[in-house]
Design goal:
The structure is a single chain. The protein is α+β, with helices and mostly antiparallel strands and 94 residues long. The protein has one domain: 3-Layer(aba) Sandwich (Glutaredoxin). Helix content is 35%, strand content 22%. It is built from 3 helices and 5 strands; from the N terminus they run E-E-H-E-H-E-E-H. The chain has helices spanning 24-35, 50-62, 85-92; strands spanning 4-6, 15-19, 40-44, 71-74, 78-81. Strands 1-3-2-4-5 form a 5-stranded mixed sheet, with helices on one face. Helix 1 links the parallel strand 2 (15-19) and strand 3. 22% of the residues are buried.
């Protein structure tokens, strides 16, 4: 998987974002993370080949998530589906 790493001053948590390149909520999530200087990595699922998409689907489903984007995984424990600003703030302590 070729994840894009975005630098930020806040590296307290490991954050992975599965997104769709044209999704407004995915863009809002990226903007939220940037505005809070959160270090994170992301991949635009729609731009991946089938093999990588299958791995992403397996990862999300194995964590009890649904195939909806954005999907944010924090510290390999917390899974947030959709742009849920309050949940993100609480999980990321911002």
């Amino acid at each position: 998987m070729s994840l894009v790493k975005v630098q930020g001053k806040n590296s307290k948590h490991k954050v992975r974002l599965y997104a769709i390149s044209t999704c407004a909520w995915c863009k809002a999530t990226k903007k939220f993370l940037k505005n809070h200087s959160i270090k994170y990595e992301y991949i635009d699922v729609d731009l991946c080949d089938k093999k990588v998409k299958d791995k992403i689907v397996d990862d999300i489903l194995s964590r009890g998530g649904t195939l909806s984007y954005p999907t944010i995984i924090i510290d390999d424990e917390v899974l947030i589906t959709g742009f849920r600003e309050d949940e993100l703030k609480e999980a990321l302590e911002v």
